[in-house]
Every structure is written in structure tokens, then in C-alpha cells.
Amino acid sequence: MTTTRHYRRGRLSTVLSASLVLSAIACGEIDVANPNNPSVDGLVNSPTATSAGALATGLLRGTRANVAEGIRWLGAFGREGYPMSVTGASLPGSVRDPLNGNGFPGNILYADPYRNIRSANLLLSAIDGVGAWTEAQKQATRGFAKTIQAYDLLQVIVTRDAFGAPLDASLDPTAPPAPIATKAQVYARIATLLDEARTHLLAGGAAFPFPLTAGFAGFNTPATFLRVNRALRARAAVYTDNWQAALTALSESFLSTTAPLTLGAYHVFTTNSGDITNPNFRPDLLFAHPRLRTEAKLRADGTLDLRAQTKLMTVPTFVVQNISSNVQFTMYNSATAPIPLIRNEELILLRAEANLGLGNTALAIQDINLVRSTSGGLAPLPATFSGDLLTELLYDKHYSLLWEGGHTWIDMRHYGRLERIPVRAADPRLFPAMPIPVAECQPRSPQPVGCGIVNGITPTPQP
Amino acid sequence: MHLPCLARAALVALIAQAVPITLAHAQDPRSARSLSGRVTEEGNGLPATQVQIVLGAVALGATRDDGTYSVRLPAGSVTVTFRRIGFKRNEITVGPNMTTLDVVMSRDLLRLGEVVVSGQATGIERRNAATAIASVTAAELNRVPAPSLETMLAGRVPGAEISSNSGAPGGGNQIRLRGISTVIGAATPLYVVDGVIISDATIAPGVFAVTGSSANPVAGGRQDNASNRVADLDPNSIERIEVLKGATAASIYGSRANNGVVLITTKRGALGKPAFTLTQRFGQSEVARTIGMRRFNSQADAIATFGPAVGALWKEGTYFDHEREVYGQTPTSWESVMSVSGGSADTRYFASGLLKDDGGIIANTGYRKQSLTMGLDQTISPKLTARITSNLLGTKTGRGLTNNDNRGVALGQALARSPSFIDLRRNADGSFPRNPAAQSNPLETAALSTNEEVVYRAITSGNLTYNAFTRTSQDLRFIASGGVDFFNQRSNILTPPQLQFEPLDGLPGTAVRSNAQSLNMNLNLSAVHTYRTSGGGLQATTSIGHQYEQRGLSNSRVVAQNLIGGLDNIGRATAVSVAEDDSRTNDIGINAQEELLLFDQKLFLAAGFRADRSSNNSDADKYYYFPRAQSSYRFTSLPWAFEELKVRLAVGRSGNQPQFGQKFTEFFGGNIAGLPTIEIGTGAQTADLNLRPEIQTEVETGLDLSLLKGRAAIEFSYFNKRIDDLLVTATLANSTGYGLRIFNGGTMESRGYEAALRAFPIVTKSFEWNSTTTFSTVNAKVVSLPVPPFQAPGFGTTFGVFQVEAGKSLTQIVGNDSLPNGQGIVRQVGDANPDFRMGFSNSFRLGKINVTTLFDWQKGGEVINLTRFLWDLSRNGPDCNDIAAAPNPNNETVCVRRGRTFSRQTRNYIEDASFIKMRELAVTYDLPSKLVRRAMSRAESARLTLSGRNLLIITDYTGVDPEVSNFGSQAISRGFDVSPYPPSRSFWLSIDVRF
Fold first, then answer.
1. pLDDT of residue B217
2. Residue A339: is it exposed, middle or buried by C-beta count within 10 angstroms (0-12/13-18/19+)?
3. Which of A328, A454, B235, B403 matches a 20 to 30 Å C-alpha distance to B124?
4. Angle, nearest 10°, between helix axes A49-64 and A135-160?
5. Is A449 part of the contact surface with chain B (CB cutoff 8 Å)?
6. Cα-flanking dihedrals φ and ψ of residue B789, to 5°?
7. pLDDT tens, position by position, B358-388
8. Tens of pLDDT along B777-815?
9. Using CA atoms, how far apart are residues A16 and A14, in angstroms rounded to an integer?
10. DSSP 3-state of B657
């Protein structure tokens, strides 16, 4: 060390620069943006045609989320089939024990539809801000969003039925939850949404400003999508016994006695990265109820109803918890098989149902026979048929819409025939409705009807 | 730039400068006076090597191999300290004219002279420490080889609950220090290796894509039985592990310390000529516990269970124990370790290499590890020393397909449905028979599928210490330390098309590839000033520091199905899905601390604080403060055999910052049939705008008593942790469209006792008995909760689920139950928290033979035994032939009854988890030196060890293992036993040679 002064100055400057570095680090910008997903605020406050368009297309993804599960569980409630899981023991237990809103299957067809309703609401609030869209395009998007919202709400109310369902949830997550509206109010809202959507779609110009999936082939312009909107309107009207409204809606729908019965709107599945495959293509786990064979009507040549032939196949017997079956479904025969949202065969039967409700027996028989012969290869009902026509209609709805969305359970309940669904000792329980999920109940006091356990009914088992 | 922040930093910087400036006129310590002598061990008189000779904080030198030393001292009377780990410290006043000094060192049986951490850059001798910091040394760690480091700590640290998530090779453990400290925050301790904050990430390989345990492509891997990355570390290269259990001690790590901190110190080079050690171990393992397969005594039973088609295959007297077939490998394992240590006064080095191959009890599983550790300590100038440690690691783990599953694919689940009367073993042509009763043949799945993790990792740390000046009365050091931890984890899962279950989804053959990269970096700058009075009556240590930390983890995963030609190539598939998940966090922390040793080092007082900000908080610019204060007093003049009593009291705060991503409210970006979509994701969260760290305030008090001339010590601690601003989730009404809201609110409290008795009941020349018994309890309770009770991840109340509820134990299990009137009700049906845990570690030395044992006892606590549920469900368990108790009109068997009644009685599958495990047993024989020299002329010593791990488990538990966790490491949701990889026991023969 030659000079102490130099030494000290050097040290001082070292310390000074070190502390400057330290200060710079201590005060530097350290925040990190979300690298994984777009932010909600950003999209809603400054939407672009691309982002709002993706949000609109996203409604089709959202509304598809619970469809396959709905088919399985509602299908089990209506004894169409059993999702038998070796490991989860899911379904056999669920048709044996009471339903609770705290897990499968009591909580399905609820959170997902509401999630999509919220996505649609966010889209509706963003539409005005999309500068690149014309007024017609905005109207078309509104019509599309409200139609999907109505469809989602319908999913909720067909499962919760008399318990009702909440409408108009607040955007503020800390606000008290929306009151639970009655079944009638919910159906009224569904009708309103669909009718408002109709008005929007009529002003919606030639095309949507976003793409729809191939499942909407033929229904992917505002004018043609309106036919799907009207079909849903008819389904909701039939469920509430508004026969005339149903017929009116059907007249604007895609109902056709000449087009294929499979014409309709579908949920699609692909093996694309990030997309999902059809969860009901599960030959290992999903079984049909053996009654579908034993209860099927016979054709003139003594063979089974064509629907029982083509939609079912025989497999080795599988037993879980004393529930056994050797029949499986064939309709979802690949990972990318689509699931109907609504299709022509249902529309014809809805028209028959509405006519039956209005007492137009002849018109009803005409439509029933169309489906019965085309789809089932069965002999037509005589025009003078004097038996219980409703039973006949429900038979056709059962077989025509098998494993497509719990139609059997919904229809049997609609006509107070729930306990006519045959049960066995191993699966003795029938449910009038699914419980309101725990998450919906928790913030509420007192607990609304529908919270807690749904015991259902246990008619005398058949051997 | 934020002015207040700059001002604050400038203030800190000014303080940092003030210290050196005001003290800059002190004098140079060196002078021309020398002191030399010889140091020996008490009793045997052997030379004591590697004894450090220290003046204040200045290292003067160390003793040579013959115990001699020679150092230079300043003029005047000075106090010189002779110290060596494992020996009592010797402080000797050297008169102004003394030139020779011989010293006798006595063994520090209770390690009271060991220095434990007291600040980010400061330490304190255990005798003065004000908190119960546990430490574990190399000798204890490596007695019996283990799958991972944490396993070796089990039973050794009071207050630490260390459990294996499964028995799979390659680790997967969780350490809970003083119980649970969070509900939804990070749940594992902070691991620091030589100053580098390393990653303990658990990265799911993507098993769920095969087993269907979850449908969520990003967060779905919770049940994948992945290993946590601390398992990578090589225990053989570790010198010491210190465990900071609660906020009182861990406060120095601020907002990441609520779960405690585990400080790992790598071995360092020692002065002298190169010393080599060579260890070779051979071992064998076998399955430790199985469930047992049902024996079918009649065809009617077989048909009733598996249906007519399968039942027809029943044959009188055929019995295949498929469980023993699947878990029946008895692989040979081996481990080779070589290390060298040496150095001169200026340069010391250490290097250690490890090659290891552990076999698994399931085909295609196992663990291989290669590690190279190098440490260099270099004195650059009298004032500047540098220390560099570098650890390169490679591991390859085969983990098998286990745990929860929804497709009948995972081995345990397939076993539960495999009839024992059907032969499932490989056919002569190499193919496997189809399992007619299940979706898969577990023997085929085990033999043909792959689930492996390959990790390459580099952990490098550096430490630069600048002794700005050193005087007898004071010294000032600047320390820069930190380092980098980088790893890449590639996971590879292959279930080839020919497997029975593969074609079922229409896309035969699945290959999953996950690629994760993790980079952690941190830099700590500290200044430490120590002042001491000449008589030693007062010592004051002032330290300030700054920490910058950055960590990032990026994980991409490809799931490829319908493999073309069955190739394991994700490019040869028709259905490919890709997911990526990134996380990045930046943290900044400031530390300041004052430590005082008063009254001849009898009274210790310390106070300090840490201030932290983090990008994981909503406001990344806001500092959160974590203060602490500690005190201890030693009573030294005690009656009877009592030697010294220390009473201690400490309070401290630490935090647990929100996890990455919890502050975001986001849309989910995806596609439908290739069209871009944006939507609210399933169960999406809405985040609070003021998300901030959870704050733990801990009070710890205790007594440490040493007695019988240092032959026994009793430590007792009581702690009370209160955690405020808990991160909680409010489940939102589904009708809002969102799943939950995350915010800070609510308080939990946990308190407990820890006690340890360390004793050397017998110490003679020929026989020595060393015994340590530890005891701990902890009870955590939710004091207040601003949200309705909510549930931790699980399977719903039917199966039992952990529910966070005000006024209740944090580990309560709720489930379905029935009231006396038959009505169903959901209520508490169990509690996972054990009553207490005890560890018994004993070591006996008789001449050249040394026997050590380690027992671990958990009393109480409950486990959700869903493995048994699965076996009952298939009516395939060992007790499925036993008839249940009356009234029993239908002649129901016990397993049928459990399965039938459980949906209204979750308790059927909740079992007591009490166990006693013999974790370790080792018998060591020191070979006679003559023999050793004859065999190898350069060898100094050699020993043979016969050891075993997990040799014995005593428990009433009927599942696979009461410690397993289907969801891996979790804050709360441990204790789900869902057909995991079963535990194994292992036997080892080792030889250690020193030369």
C-alpha cells in the first residue's frame, strides 16, 4: 500500500458504486405479465375484431363442455345406459344413492353453462367497442351470443327443473349472488333471449364476423342460424306446454319431412391440439341398459326396431356392483364423432308432441309414423289409433334420441311418468331433478330449495 | 422509477457506507510475533488435525496432520480460539510474551460449539442460539442409502414431518416443518444450497394423459406421482443440513419462509495432502407391503364377482398372486462414491463423484444418478477470499404408472380388478394374455410401458468475502454470494399400441413428452460489522444485506396419440396436443440485523427485519416487512449434575407470497376444431387487486439444559405460529361464471411442542452408546375465515375431503355420515394430524463394531384409504370371503358391506395412520488396519457396513402405506392412499476405504 489516501478513495468509490447498483436493483421494475393467457380486462375494455371473434367462437367451445357428461348422467337417470367406471365407481353408485350437489354427478350441467353465459355477457359488453365490425355484424354477434346463452340456460333448467335457477349474476364477484328464479321465470327468460336473438339475427346481414364450426354447416349465417334458434325455441316451448308457440317456432326452424333426420346442428370434436375428442367414445366404460333390447318393438319380420339394432351392439358382459350389461352404444363410434345439439328427427317429434298437446291427433300420428317408419322400420300407427298416443310418442322420442342428451329422463318427468322408468335392486333410485351445486348454495342463507341432498324416489324394483 | 423506493435504497446504502467510513482509522492487525504448539485430543492424546485457530473473526491458520501449528499474532495480550467441528471450543488468552502453546481439545458430544445460522450472513454458536435450529451432519445422513435426501432426514429432526408421497424410486417427498402453514400457498420449505435458493419444483410428467386422472391439460398432473427436484441432490456431498423451522429463525428469508428453510452446506476441502475416500455399496430391495389378492373358493363366487364370462374361467385350486407378480422384482442396486479433499493454506478443494443405480420393484422402474460436486476455497489476498461450488447432476427415473386413474390402466387399479384364478403372465410367444375382467393386464402394462424423468442439473454457487478490515476489537466484511440453479427435466411416457387398453380410445398408442426448464438465480450482498470489547464482555454484530432473486419455470408438454407404427415419436402420431405453462417471478429483499452477545457471552440479543417485494404480489413495488427479535440467556453456575441451562425467547415474522399466477384474472385461450377461441376457463379464478404475502408471526420459547459433564442435553421448545392474511379461496356461486376468488383473509394458528434428549449414556474406551430421542406435536386450527368452509383438492365428501373451516382443525376430513335416525349428513369424520411423532436414534460402538438404528413413530392421524375402496369395489380384496357381522340376512361379506354402506358412511375407508417404522439399521465393522494395509498399501482405513432401510413397519393400517400422498406434495390434501407405488425395503452391503 503506497498511499493510504488513494486506497481510501478507491474503497469509497467502490462502496458508492456498489450502493448505486444496489439502489438500481432495489427499485427496478420487477413485475411480470401473464405469459400464459389473455387478460379479461384487456379484452373487454379494448376488444378487437380478432379477440371478440375468438370470444364468440369460444361460446361454441364453452357450450360443448358438459354435453357428453350430460348424456351419460342424464342417460343414467333415464336408464338409457350406465357409465360404468371400474375405478371411480361413479355411476352405479349414483343411481343407487342420493344425489348431492358436491360432486359427480349432482353438480354437472351447471358451472359450465353459467361459465359460458358469463363469457357471452362479456362478449355482449365488448361488442360495441369493436370498431372494425359493422352494425349488422354486431347485431349478428348479439343474436348468436343470446341464442347460445338461452341454450346454456336450458341445460341448467332441464336438470334443476322445479328448483329453479339464478338469472342475472353480477359482474362483481364479491356481490351477493343473484336470487334463484322460479322454473317459469327461467323458461320465460329463455324465450325472451331467443326472441331477442331472433330480432338481432334478422338485422344481422349476410354473415357472422367470426367462423362457426363444421357442426353448424348449413346454419352458419345469421339467416340460417336463426333456424337453429327457432328449433331451440320450440324445444323450450314444448317443455313448458306452450304448444302453439312451439308450432310457430317450428315453422321458422329447419324442420323438414324430406331432409335427412340427421340434419341439424352438432357439437364437433377433433384431435387437434388443444381441442377435445368426444368423451363419450368410451367403449371401455359406457354401457347401454339391457332394457333397450327387451323393450324394443318388433318389426313385421320379427326383428327389433331398427333403432335398437343400429344404435346398440353386443359385448361381453360387464359387472360392477351387481349392475351388469352386455350392450353398448354405437352412435359415437370414433373419437371425433359429433354430438347433436338439435336435429330434424327431434323437431318432427316436437311437432307431433305439440299437435298432440293441442289435440291434433291426426297430425301427431302423421309425424310419429314418419319417424317410426324411417328411423325404426316399424309399421305405422293406424290413423284411427285409439290407445295412449303419448306413450307411443315417448317410445319414439326414447329410441330416436337415445344417448343424445337425457331426453328420456326429461320427457318422462315432463309427463309425470318418472316412476315408470324401470329400476332394479342394484339401481333403485330415480331423481326428479339434480341438486343445486354446493358452490351456488354456500353464499346463500337460508339455503334455497334444491340445496343439499336429493333423495329421489325408489319405486318397486323389477327383477 | 419510484422516488420513495430510491430514497429508501439510498438510505440503506448510506448506512452501509457509514460503517466503514467511521471505522476506517483502525490499525493493521498483523505483527511479527509467532505462536506455535501442538494440539491433541483429550483422552487418547491423538493429534488433533484441522483445528482452526482464530483471532476474533480472523482465521490465522490450522493444525497440520501431526497436530502442530504455527501462526502469527498481533502484539499484546490476545484471546485465541481453537475450534474444530465436533470439539468444544477452546478460548485461550495468550500473554504478550508467549511463543508456544499446547492445547488439548475435548469432544463436543452435544455439538454446542457448532455454529448455526442467525442471519443472512451471520452465525451463532448453538450454545447461544435463541431458536431451536436443528442440524444434521454428513455422518448421520449417509448411514443407509435412500432414494432421496429428505428420506434420510425422517425421524431425525424434531418438528419435521417427512413423508414419502410413494415408494417409487427417485424420491417424491414432502417436508412439513412445524405443521401446515398455508392453505393454498406454496407448501414446501425453501431449500438453500450454499447460498443458492434452489428449485424444489414438482413437474408432472403427464401420466394423467394416459390414466385420465384429470382432464386438465395444464394443471392436471397433481396425481402423477412426480418427484420433487430436491431429490436430485447427492447426499454424499453434503456436510450439513440446518433446518429453520418457524418464522423466528426463518424470518431472514422473508416472504418465502413460512414453510421453513432447509439450509444445505456442501462439503469443503480440508487443509493437507489429498485425502481420498471410496465407498462402494451394493443393495437389494423388495416390496415391503401388499394388499393381498382374494382367493375364489367356488365358481359361484367368481361369477358373482366378475360376471359369467370371466367366472367360467375359474378352476379349482388355481391361484396367481398378481400383486406379487407386478411388484415382485428384487433388483440389485449399487452406489459408488469417490471423493478427494485437500489443500494448502490459500487453496482448498473438494471433489466428489457419485454413480448410483437403484432398481425398482416394478418392471421398468428404477433410478440412476450421476453427480459431480466440486468445491474450491481460495484466498485471493489477505482480505479477499472466494468460494465456488459447482454441482453437476444427471438423473434418470423410471416411475411406473401408479396412483389414481379413471381408465383402469394404472397398475394398482388394474390389480384390484384382476382375478387371481386367471394366469396373466407373459405367453410363450412374448405376448400377454388379455385381462377379461379389466381394461388392462397390469403385467403387460408394467412390462411394456415407460414413464421416465430425465434431469440434467447444474447448481453453481459463489461467495466472495472481502474483509475490509480486521482488528481485534472489530472487523468489517462485505460478502457477495449467490448462484444459479438450472435444470432441464424431460419426461417421457410411452404406452405402446399393443397394450390391452390402448385401442379403447380409438387412438392406439400414446406418447407423452414433457420438457421443463427451470432457472433460479439469486444474488445476496451483505455487510457485516462486528465489534467486541477486549475482555469479551460484549460483542455486537451489525449486518445489512440485499437480495435479488429470479426464478422461472417453463414446461411444455406434448401428448401424441395413435402412434404410427407404434413408434415412440411424437411426430409420428395422428392426434397431437400441446400445452405450455410458464411462470416467472422476481423478488427483491432487504435485510438488516443487530446481534449482541453480552455478559461473557451469556446473554444473546438480536433484532432485525427483512423487507421484501415480489412480482407475485398484486403490487410488485410494495415492500412487506418481516421483523424479528431474539434473546437467550445461559445460566452456568448450576447445582448437582446440571451444567448449563439456557432459556430462550424469540419472536419473528415471515411470509408466504402468493403463488405465481394467483394474481391474474384471465381468459382461457384454446380452439374448437382449429378455430381460435377465448372463453372463461373451467373453474376460473378472479383475483383480488391486493394479493399479498401471508404473514406468519411466531413466538418460540424454550429451555436447553446440558448436564452430566456434557454427556446429556435436553432441549424443549414451545412455539405458537399465527398466520394472518391467509391466502384463501372463496368459492363463487357458479352462476357468476367463475369458480373462485383468491384473496388474503383469515387467520390460522398452530402451536406445538418439540423436545429432544441427546445423551451419551455410556462412553468408555471400548463401548459407547449414543442416543437421541425426539418428540414433537403440532396442532393447527383455523381461527377465522372470511369465506364459507371450502375444500382442498380431493374427490368430494363421498370419499372424504379436507375442509378448511373456522374453528376447526386445519387437517379435518369431512365426509358423509348418517345420523342415528338414518338421515344423511356431511360432517367431520377424521383428522389427518397425528397426536405426536417420535424419533429414536441409537448408536452403539463396541470396539470396531458400530450398530446404529433409527426408528420413527407416528401416533394417530388418519388416512383416506381409497386403495382398499378400489379392492372392495371389485370385491377382490383379501377379506372378501369373510362374512360380515350380524345382523346379516344376506350373508354379506365384510368388503361388500364396507362398499355398500360407505356412501353414507365415509368413515369406512378412513383409517388410523399410526405406525412405527424402522427406518435404518446399520452394522459397521472397522477392518483392522493391518489387514487394510496388506490389501491396499496406501489405504488408511476401511470399514464394512451391512445396512437396511425400512426393514420393519408396525401398523394396523390396511392400505399400501400410511405415509403416501396421491396428490403429491400438498399444503393440506396429503393422506390419500390411491393405489400408489408400494414402499420397498432394501438391504445394503458397503465398503468404505480412506487413503
1. 58
2. buried
3. B235
4. 20
5. no
6. -50, 140
7. 999 999 999 999 999 999 999 998 889 999 9
8. 999 999 999 988 888 888 888 889 999 999 999 999 999
9. 5
10. coil
Put simply, the answer to whether B738 touches A334 (Cβ < 8 Å) is no
**Residue contact A118–B405, C-beta within 8 A:** no
Confidence of residue A7 (pLDDT cuts 50, 70, 90): very low
In A, minimum Cα distance to B681 occurs at A115
pLDDT beyond 60 at B437 = yes
What is the 3-state composition of chain B as percent helix, strand, coil, each rounded to the nearest 5?
Answer: 10, 50, 40
Bridging pattern class, strands B261-266 and B190-193: parallel
Q: Which residue reads 410413494 in cell numbers?
A: B166
CA proximity to A253, closest of A238, A231, A234, A233: A231
Instruction: Report the distance separating Cα A197 and Cα A192, nearest Å.
Output: 8
Distance from CA of A351 to the nearest CA of B (A): 32
Taking an 8 Å cut-off on Cβ atoms, the answer to whether B667 and A34 are in contact is: no
Is the minimum CB–CB distance between A428 and chain B shorter than 8 Å? no
- CB–CB contact B575 A87 (8 Å): no
Other beta carbons within 10 angstroms of residue B572's beta carbon come to 16
Asked if the C-beta of A37 comes within 8 angstroms of chain B's C-beta atoms, the answer is yes
A134 in contact with B, Cβ within 8 Å = no
B585, B735, B826 ranked by CB distance to A440: nearest: B735
d(CA B676, CA A56): 10
pLDDT at site A85: 63
The answer, for A179 touching chain B at a CB cutoff of 8 Å, is no
Complex ipTM, two decimals? Answer: 0.90
- Percent of chain B whose pLDDT exceeds 70: 95
Look at residue A256 and tell me whether its pLDDT is greater than 60. yes
Q: Note the pLDDT tens digit of each residue in B140-172.
A: 888 888 878 888 888 888 899 888 888 888 888
Secondary structure (DSSP) of B82-97: EE-TTB--EEEEEPTT
A&B contacts, CB < 8 Å: 308
Q: How far apart, in whole angstroms, are the C-alpha atoms of residue B430 and residue B444? A: 10
Q: How far is CA B213 from CA B170, B408, B560, B982, in A?
A: 22, 10, 17, 19
Asked if the C-beta of A68 comes within 8 angstroms of chain B's C-beta atoms, the answer is no
Establish if A337 touches chain B: CB-CB under 8 angstroms: no
Contact A213, A268 (CB under 8 A): yes
List of chain A residues whose C-beta atoms are within 8 Å of the C-beta of residue B8:
26
Over its C-alpha atoms, chain B yields an Rg (Å, rounded) of 30
CA distance B419 to B319: 9
Q: Given this model, what pLDDT does residue B918 score? A: 94
Distance from A150 to chain B by nearest Cα, in Å? 14
Q: Cβ of B13 under 8 Å from any chain A Cβ?
A: yes
Cα nearest neighbour of B480 on chain A = A18
pLDDT at A10: 45
Does residue B404 belong to the interface with chain A, where contact is any CB pair within 8 Å? yes
Q: Is B242 helix (H, G, I), strand (E, B) or coil?
A: strand
Interface test with A, best of B211, B555, B680 (most A CBs within 10 A): B680
Q: Which residues of A touch B579 (CB under 8 A)?
A: 274
Within 286-305 of A, beta carbons closer than 8 Å to B belong to: none
CB contact under 8 A, A62 and B667: no
What is the per-residue pLDDT for B4? Answer: 47
Confidence of residue A13 (pLDDT cuts 50, 70, 90): low
Q: Which helix (H) or strand (E) holds B763?
A: strand B747-763
**Per-residue confidence (pLDDT) for residue A463, from 0 to 100:** 64
Q: Does A25 touch chain B (CB under 8 A)?
A: yes
Q: What is the dihedral of CA B961, B964, B966, B971, to 10 degrees?
A: 150
- Cα angle value B259/B115/B89 (rounded, 5°): 160
